[in-house]
Known about the structure:
The chain has 259 residues and is mainly alpha-helical. Helices cover 58% and strands 0% of the residues. InterPro entries: RNA_pol_sigma-70-like, RNA_pol_sigma-70_dom, RNA_pol_sigma70_ECF_CS, RNA_pol_sigma70_r2, RNA_pol_sigma70_r4_t2, RNA_pol_sigma_r2, RNA_pol_sigma_r3/r4-like, WH-like_DNA-bd_sf. It comes from Zeimonas arvi.
Amino acid sequence: MAGSQGDGSAGAGAAKAAPAPADAQLVARALRGEAGAFEAIMRRYNRLLFRCVRGVLGDDAEAQDVVQETYLRAFSTLAGFRGDCALGTWLARIAFHAAIDAQRRRGRTVSLDDESEEGTESDVEPMMNWNVSTAESPDSQAERGEMRVLLTNAIEALPPIYRSVFILRAVEEMSVEETADCLEVSDAVVKTRYLRARTKLRDALGDRLEPRAREAYAFAGSRCDAVVAGVLDELRRQGLVCTDAQERPATCVESESRL
């Protein structure tokens, strides 16, 4: 995720924001034990992972715990990330399995199969534009808040196999291929489940709420900070984070060699 580029309208002396480091750079720095790299990865992908987990779980607090667990699983094996897929996709796949594990630990089962996987997104109209204009009146903003609640409740009512796909496709705007990779299903299954999720939502809400999809399951502020702080504390306890990335303690070297 690169930083925004300047539009050329600023004066020559104006300072430009430094581009955000690439995922590969952050991974390399994290493997050297830099706390800032771990934090940057988490802040970049917190919302994606929370939404992925909420597609399986039905509780915000439980989902937040699973996001934290996801990072600890991922960071303890970070040396095994080869870049064969995007870092976000790799993390989301771990998050999905962590959510399923959480369900099983609590004696709940989540069906990952559907009785029929026929049909594709191409059976209906093309993908719509999910973006929402930010130029809104106070009345429009109030209506938008009400719609967000209605939409979130409707998504919650979807069966987990449809909810997971809808959140990744419509809310996070992942491609079919990325969603299939995260959930470890075929592209055809993703298309079918997404079509059915959209049909169910339209039956419940009508077309007018679809453009609000990206606003569902917000994850920022104190909850985002809590995940970052909790994971960093545990990484420090495990010796995976060094206070000085240039002169690393032996524990950091030893921890990295165990990955």
